[in-house]
Design a protein that fits this description.
Layout: E1 5-15, H1 20-29, E2 33-44, E3 54-56, H2 61-71, E4 75-80, H3 86-99, E5 100-108, E6 113-114, E7 117-118, H4 124-136, E8 139-140, H5 144-151, H6 161-174, E9 178-182, E10 190-197, E11 200-207, H7 216-229, H8 234-250, H9 268-275
Parallel strand pairs: 1-2, 1-4, 4-5, 5-8, 8-9
Antiparallel strand pairs: 2-3, 6-7, 9-10, 10-11
């Protein structure tokens, strides 16, 4: 196995099992040297906690990049998660240009919305800037809300395959090369992920849990990136990420005191096992 170096750019929520505090251990467990660039530092994540501290690190980003360029540091892949402003998105575009090795991968999780709504503090201008970043990516990992915002499509909670196909077409027309669309549910009690790669459609369905769990989007995206960089096919990486995310939720269900995240650490041995086996291409087309 090649020993690869990747960079992930997102915030640090010191408590809450999301963003960099899940991306770093998951990517490391995949056997990948993982470098980080924090976009902000928060005492906790913002869902369910009150009075949290927040330190914006936007102005540190270009200086960090300049130091890396001076040292000749480059990456085989760059993966972005939660970004706090349009200015940060502009800086990330420069980082793609200046620190990614030739042939390296750009993966963007446009973490900005869920359940039909933008996260607090974001607006239409931010969505437009995120869309421009997605166009530059090799892979994007949006949920349905984010895909709707990026494409100007009405958000629906009830839909069919035609609605999803429309979203995928609009994303492709924008210039998004490969799309991993999460939270796609065609059947009650089930959910899944759509892989749209080179105009081909694959769907992997799995169990849906009634409760919402914080941080699972970050866990999914980080696992997908880790498996992809480990040379799994796009569908294999999407399947591994889905199975591992389900394992993390199952490890947490029933613990009412652990409402702020999922116990992803307990499932890491399963992730490593998934990476060491072949998945097969059994997606619905």
């Amino acid at each position: 196995m090649d020993y690869k170096k990747i960079l992930t750019i997102q915030d640090i929520s010191c408590v809450g099992q999301c963003s960099l505090t899940v991306a770093l251990p998951i990517l490391s467990a995949c056997g990948i040297e993982t470098c980080i660039l924090p976009s902000a530092v928060l005492s906790t994540h913002t869902a369910g906690f009150s009075g949290y501290t927040f330190r914006d690190l936007t102005e540190d980003i270009p200086r960090i990049k300049q130091h890396w360029m001076k040292e000749g540091i480059q990456f085989e892949a760059i993966y972005t998660g939660f970004l706090g402003s349009e200015k940060q998105i502009a800086y990330i575009t420069d980082i793609f240009q200046d620190t990614l090795r030739i042939g390296g991968l750009k993966i963007v999780d446009p973490a900005m919305a869920d359940n039909g709504k933008l996260y607090p503090g974001f607006d239409a201008n931010f969505v437009k800037s995120m869309g421009n970043l997605c166009k530059r990516a090799d892979y994007i990992v949006p949920n349905i809300t984010e895909a709707c915002l990026l494409t100007g499509t009405e958000y629906k909670t009830e839909y069919d395959r035609g609605y999803i196909d429309l979203l995928l077409k609009k994303l492709a027309d924008m210039g998004c090369k490969n799309v991993i669309l999460t939270g796609v549910s065609y059947e009650q009690g089930k959910t899944g992920v759509v892989v749209f790669e080179d105009t081909q459609y694959f769907y992997y369905e799995h169990e849906k849990f009634p409760q919402n769990c914080h941080g699972t989007g970050d866990i999914y995206a980080s696992t997908f990136v880790g498996a992809l960089v480990r040379d799994k096919t796009t569908f294999e990486a999407a399947k591994i990420a889905a199975d591992y995310t389900v394992d993390c939720i199952k490890a947490t269900v029933g613990d009412e005191n652990h409402w702020y995240g999922v116990k992803f650490e307990l499932a890491l041995p399963k992730l490593i096992a998934y990476l060491n086996q072949s998945c097969g291409s059994d997606g619905m087309t």
